[in-house]
Amino acid sequence: MDQTQSFWQFVEQQSPKLWSQTWAHIGLTMISLIIAILVAVPIGILIARRKKIAGVVLGFAGVLQTIPSIALLGVLIPFLGIGPKPAILALFLYALLPVIRNTYTGITQVNPAVIDAARGMGMDNWQILTRVELPLAFPVLMAGIRTATVINVGVATLAAYIAAGGLGEFIFGGIALNNSNMILAGAIPAALLAIVLDFLLSLVQKINLKSMRLTYIILPFIFLSLSSFYLLPTQIGGRMLGGFTPEFMGREDGYLGLKRVYQLGIETVVISDAVMYKAAYEHKLDVISGYSTDGRLKAFDLVTLKDDRHIFPPYYAAPVVRQDVLLKHPELEVILNQLSGFINDSTMTALNYKVDELKQSPEKVAMDFMVANQLFKPARKTTAGTIRIGSKIFGEQYILAQMYKILIRGNSDLGVETKSGLGGTKICFDALTNNQIDFYPEYTGTGFLVLLQPDRKTMERLNGDTQGVYDYVSREFNQQYKLKWLKPIGFNNTYALMMRREQAQSLHIETITDLTKHLNQN
Amino acid sequence: MISVKKLIKKFGSAVAVNGISFDVQEGENLILLGTSGCGKTTTLRMINRLIEPDEGTVYINGADIRDSEPEILRRGIGYVLQNHGLFPHYTVAENIAIVPRLLKWNKEEIRKRADELFGKLNLDPSLAGQYPAALSGGQQQRVGLARSLMVNPPVLLMDEPFGALDNVTRTAIRKEFGQLDELVKKTIVMVTHDVQEAFEMGDRICLMDKGEIRQIGTPAELLFNPANEFVSTFFEEQRLQLELKSVVMSDLFPDAENSNTVTVWDEMNQLLHPENHTGQLRATAAVQADLKTLMSAFAAYKKK
Fold first, then answer.
1. ipTM (interface pTM)
2. How far apart are alpha carbons B137 and B166 in whole angstroms?
3. B72 vs A contacts (CB less than 8 Å)
4. Which CATH number applies to B1-76+154-237: 3.40.50.2300, 1.10.443.10, 3.40.50.720, 3.40.50.300?
5. Most CB within 10 Å of its CB: which of A59, A378, A433, A520?
6. What average pLDDT does the segment A352-364 reach?
């Protein structure tokens, strides 16, 4: 859409957002770092005194370091919810090891003769610590703090996954939207931030400290940490809070459209799809952006709001088949179309729920469904060659692939080979056009926006027009790729706004317009 | 001045010091001499409570050292280490001001006293702003001594103070320190493993082995009246030189007007290398005759 936009134009246009993200990033990094220093330096001093526990403590901090950051964030959410709190705790845990280790190393490497002289001259333990050990350990200690800072600037990008803000919003949004300007607008400031903070700390490192006057050290610390809290995104007031994925935030058929078409004025945070549903369930968020057939909708008792002004493009699923396959096996079209009309949104949601949440196998879920709907026929002998079914790498596609397998085996003499888990759209589509698979279930919206990428006019013309989009992709695929879209299965796996069922019911919100009205009233 | 009573110190099952007792008079230099591991350093460190004894007591000026806080006690006792122990992040001036600052001296007092010691210890005033790493070994050791002398403590503990220096520097500094008026009045306990050093600097020597005292006495007593086999064999290798160093001229010629501080060793040196002392060259024959007289007197003294 705005691929022609230059990087600088993007930065200029997004500069308020960029600044707020940068400040939030600095805030997250500094707060976690300062807390880490306040905790890790005393621990480092303690284990330098008691070498016996040093191994255990350093080992434990090392284990924390090895936990993948996204996993650590995930683990913290049940306790701390979403937002800056779990992000700061995770960053704090990552900063511990370098600071503890370098404090320990710095203090233990101080020449024992110097300590002996200090004690022999009548310094007490506190004086030895603050005038001899810490000042001499200071360069090494600072090196640890620098390491921790650079690590934290990097890891803080992941805070965007749990609604804690920071430059990760641009980075992950950019990745999701395949917008390199957006990626760079997040990545370059993050890299610069790491370099600048590291440089500033290197200046501090060169200071020759005669003694660690605690007041000189701690006062700026406290000041910094307090001021850092102002940099964090302001937390949720009494109003409703929306949590949207980075991708959704940047899309015309997402948040931008919501603002433009519905004038939706809701406070938002950016959050990863992985934790979004749960956060809504736990009342951390009130409105989220999800997919209308996601099994978690059922698992967390959420309802979708009706898109009464049609900003979300239709994503109706239908098998896309190569024409040469249909020529060779004309019976296939009829067989595959048998599924059409059997699965609506809630049916698909329930099926996905069984696979994603109840952990049933897609084979079993597909079989149960086919039997229940009298679509099942015992498999026939295979005598007439093999059909290769592709599927993308998520539950819904696995289920559909299995259903088609049952249909083909029960209604023809064809054998079936499933090639499931073909990464994303592009991989599936390439496999199809390169004769590596014979068909796969695709969504009209994906075919329209991702594969055909029509001009703006066409997009505006067909916006929200279910039949129009289907007709358009059918025609274009036929002409451009010699591929045929069969009948849509019936469900629409599109973007949707979701709310908790009880909240939506008590507020009488059924459509996005209702939501906008409710927000405007309050 | 210092009275050590039956000190015992064990590290685990190893006995480092086993019932050591001695007295040091005011103004006296007592040397704790012995091979490494004999317990001499442990003994020294128990005097300023860097190590607490398992048994026994140390009195300074009649007071049990356990009656005062260890930090307060140590501020009143000079302490010089082998590796000088200067703070690498402090300048020379800051290093020597450590104890006065702990005692809350004001800046002017510190500066005056520092200037005085710089002069006495032949330290260039320009060194005051330098960091210890920029100093030579000899200079570092002088600064270390200056630091311990700043508050003019009556008692000085020295742990191998010249141990880290090369031989030439060591001899020179030792001589210089020996003549320093600041040190003459002090009660000093010094640890060394160097026999020559012990004989040159000690009024009395406490020879230690395996945590116990083998003999305590003047250098001459240890040489000429060894209390046991250990003591006599300990000095065997350097016996003649030590003897010449421990006998003073007044021992040989009681009526000579020469002072009782010139040793036979010094006298011989003067005869053989007069240019170092008086600059007057004498006829070889006269020197030969003087040496002969000296040697026979020394032989006669030893027979007594």
1. 0.84
2. 8
3. 122
4. 3.40.50.300
5. A433
6. 90
